[in-house]
Amino acid sequence: MDKETKGKGTTQSGSDKNQNKKPNIFSRLGAYFKSVFGEVKKLSWPTRKDLISYTLTVLAFVALFAIIIGVLDMAFEYGIIGIQNIPSVVTPTPAPTAKPTPTPDPDATEAPDVTDDPDVTDAPEGTDAPEETDPETTDEP
Known about the structure:
There is one protein chain. The chain is mostly helical. It has a domain at 15-84. 44% of the residues lie in helices and 3% in strands. The protein has a two-stranded antiparallel ribbon with strand order 1-2. β1 (3-4) and β2 (11-12) form a beta hairpin.
């Protein structure tokens, strides 16, 4: 019959446990789809003529709004380009300045070799650069 639970003073029968238990997932899914199909049978479907009419109406509105959005997009694009090409009246153009002189590099270890003598060559040894000769020591007559 009734069992007493320890410490609570309430009773629970074996049949109450079965009533609180949910049915398994498959039986619940089956009941759900059965009710869905029952509702679908109650629907009134449009005729073929109505379906074609509704479809053409939707396609016409989609095309109309695509054209409207395309025209607005082009108008805004030309407007932005026009705004960007407006000459600046508020900001004057800066005057040309002289070319700045280069500052010497403090990390440079050697000064650049600048000579005005065209007879002096800076070719490294072992190359086909002409050798320097002293005009006083030549044996030519």
